[in-house]
Amino acid sequence: MSAPQNPFPANRHLLNRRNFLGQTVSGLSSIAFSAMLAEQHLLAAEKEPRLTVGGKAPIRPEIDPGKPFAPRDAHFPAAAKNVIVIFCSGACSHLDTFDYKPSLVKMHGKPMPGGDKLVTFQGQQGNLTQSPWKFKPRGESGKMISDLVPHLGELADDICFLHSIKGKTNTHGPGENYMSTGFTLDGFPSMGAWTSYALGSENQDLPSYVAIPDPRGTPQASVNNWGPGFLPAAFQGTDFNAAQPIRNLDRPVSIDAKTDRATRSFLQRLNEQHLARFPGDSELAARISSYELAARMQLSVPEISDLSQESDSILHMYGIDDSENQLKAAYAKNCLLARRLIEKGVRFVQLFNGAYQTGGEGVSNWDGHKKIKDQYSIHGPVLDQPTAALIKDLKQRGLLEDTLVVWCTEFGRMPTFQKGASGRDHNPEGFTCWLAGAGVKAPFTYGATDEFGYKAVDNVVTVHDFHATILHLLGLDHERLTFYHNGLERRLTDVEGTVVKEILA
User: Fold this and answer.
1) Which Pfam family, giving just one, matches this sequence (predicted)?
2) Where do the structural domains in the chain lie, given as residue ranges?
3) Which of 73, 187, 283, 281 is nearest to 483 (CA)?
């Protein structure tokens, strides 16, 4: 009878104690040696430059952990220094605001050609339906804009309209993510975080990036809209509005100002001493920087939020004194706060109009499924005068020359009414966004949806193209602005995006 075979022939050396200990020692030594080489950047792989998907060398900003918001140079001369994004949550209908379709009027009440049994987000569609609001030519350009937004209509000659935006999703949360971060999933950096990461800020006493939620609350995707994703946490947007100041900023009432200053001074000396002992501790430097910014904000934020410093004429222009429409007055205060932040050098401001559903569908935002006439008659006046006043105010102060104003929403709406309802369903196939201010042509119209406003058909602009253009106006190459994460050179525009050069001034 033959001897039994070793069931582990490949691992037989492990059965020998001397070989096992020898392998262990050499293995640990190899790990230690590799770590030493990595610390000194002597590994061969690290000498090979990582390239973006386009084959270009990445440009990552040099960031001092102790001064993460220090101003940094753009990649090339920039048209815009600052950005204000006005985000209409709930998917504002392009067909009832800025995208005039005569064929929709002509075919009102008839089936959409080729739309037999068309099923969208909430179900089957009814017939083509013209807007309940009349469109009129505005400004010297004669741009057709709805009576729903007459004050914005007065600014037609200052606006660059993009009527051929195309999205990827017809669901609100992912749609907000896509417009704010370039991805439908959670966990990716917002456009403002990328901008703050790349350029820092001109004001070291205020956050580089501020998100201003609607008076009714936060949008459906909430902090994802202004989150840092995998970027350093310092680049997350700081959220507050005119009615709700930054939380936990004031000192406790039990501590007087003198004691508070003395405590901060003592803590600062301890931190400086500790940092001197461990100069390479970037996490400590970042933590100290965040505490110091918070201390400076105790003085700067109350001042910037104090709208009583503004003249009565400015308050009236924004509609802050509108006693009959308290929601409009509250949103108007947020618009004025946005101008004051830009005036003080804040790099990126994200201003929300509309919030996550409270009180029923279409009550708190632009999600007009059931009774669009009733719902938009509330939302239109809230948006219109204050937003128009913000642009006028920026222009009269000379701030619009360096500030890019972006108006956007997560997707558009259908040219039909939903079957059995008097509102429009979700439509990511074609919708409108617009730009005003630094670096864009105005008046100007680019791209188009089809004759009914259903699909983008002429000069289609993806959201990645939209983001690439915004970064370009800030002097940033969207293909080279990256952050190395999980083995990939991540960027705002993923692996896509083309700058829409036709709209650049």
Assistant:
1) DUF1501
2) 82-245+309-490
3) 187
